[in-house]
Amino acid sequence: MEKARFKKTPFHFMQxxxxxxxxxxxxxxxxxxxxxxxxxxxxxxxxxMKKRFERSVYDIRRAFPQMTPAEARAVALExxxxxxxxxxxxxxxxxxxxxxxxxxxxxxxxEKMLNAQxxxxxxxxxxHFTNWEAFGLAGAIYGVDKAVLAQRVDNPYVDEETxxxxxxxxxxxxxxxxxxxxxxxxxxxxxxxxxxxxLIDQNAGSSEVWIPFMxxxxxxxxxxxxxxxxxxxxxFPVRVWREKDGTIVSEVMDPVLPPKExxxxxxxxxxxxxxxxxxxxxxANPGSWLWAHNRWKRExxxxxxxxxxxxxxx
Length: 314
Known about the structure:
By secondary structure, the protein is of the alpha/beta class. It contains 13 helices and 9 strands. It has one domain (8-312). One of its GO terms (biological process) is glycolipid biosynthetic process.
């Protein structure tokens, strides 16, 4: 079934051709003009995808009950505009030399990852904030030998192109929705004392743990916690934001050490600790997160599960 889902079709190729044309046109524009236009374009998409936009507003109001309706809509609009900014930045940044790239992106604390590389290795704990893809590119430019765990895009042509650009400055990708389970591939990578980037702030479709997130139960993948405990490697939270001039800044925070004992209870507790970083970043800058994703679509399922398994509530 998964193979059929990712099979190439003529429609997929037409989508890919349109995207390549779009990227080529954006590539001709000055950096700031491209970002401005990208933000305007995805901001306007809210008029086409009204239900999805209203879902974003609803989720924001649930997460921040102190906000007025107008404030929640402003946060949602900034989040949607950010998607276009991400795309434009990604297109432009992948066409730059490392010297040009560093004028637009920088990393604070990169030495923490570089010191771990070759000694302990580690997991990069990042989320869908500001421009997470820019951090992945920047890590490679700063000398981090990293891989990322990502979901495969349904359109295989787009997926191949995204993967090529994501690793254009070196790196590799493991797929979480591949027919081959990624856990052991990630273990082998970490065993080489390298860095592995994982984002767990989107809904987990299976093998989940139920964790409170911004006041509501959400399904999280425990893979970061399980890998960190199993391999006894540190986890490096990474926060990403933009300066007023548009510079994308990533801060590598101090490493978080996992529990010693490998168990699901420890994995749940450690996942809750990692989710706490997401909550802190969200409260600091609500509009920087990807609210278009229906993060709490399994909330009712999670509440029902925890009602029957109260020992797993964290």
